[in-house]
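User: I'm new to structure prediction. If I give you an amino acid sequence, what do you actually give back? Let's try with this one:
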Amino acid sequence: MSKRLPIIHGITEHDAGPYRMERLDLEFGNGERRRYERLHGRGHGAVAVVPLLDDDTVLLVREYAAGVHRYELGLVKGRIDAGETPLQAANRELKEEAGYGAHSLTVLRSLSLAPTYMSHQTALVVARDLYPERLPGDEPEELELVPWKLDDLHQLILREDFSEGRSIAALFIAREWLRQGDAQPR
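Assistant: Good question. You get back a string of structure tokens that encode the predicted 3D arrangement of the chain. For your 186 residues, that looks like this:
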């Protein structure tokens, strides 16, 4: 079922740290009026990279996560800089965080964090045919590299130190993509 998008009668905005908060005055197809708030990032989006050592093994990183004040396992990820494509950003982040570059990079899809109130999008990129190369990054300490078998995702998702939703979703999506023989991403 396709619904007509609500009419935006007005937008007011104010700064909210690294985001811009917008208040939308909306009118829905049934005549109902509501105010919604949404956060817009100030950047160009982000990437989450699934670096594959081989078709069975992903390379995870363990880094400090200030939001939960602990070390978390997750994927290489970061912001897309001005003038970068998602593939360029993915390869740069991979070199900065994991010390590898990739000869083959594929964008599988875009992921959102909380689409009901955030505009932020993360490009999911699979990186293959890795080679050693390190670029200086912005991390305060070197990240620990943790190889993980894709067949053992059922164990990984139960770990207390692997809780980030984009990483969980990205690994299942990448595993399914690999199982389908690298079918064209949609």
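You can read the tokens as a compact description of the fold. Here is one thing that stands out. The mean pLDDT is 92.
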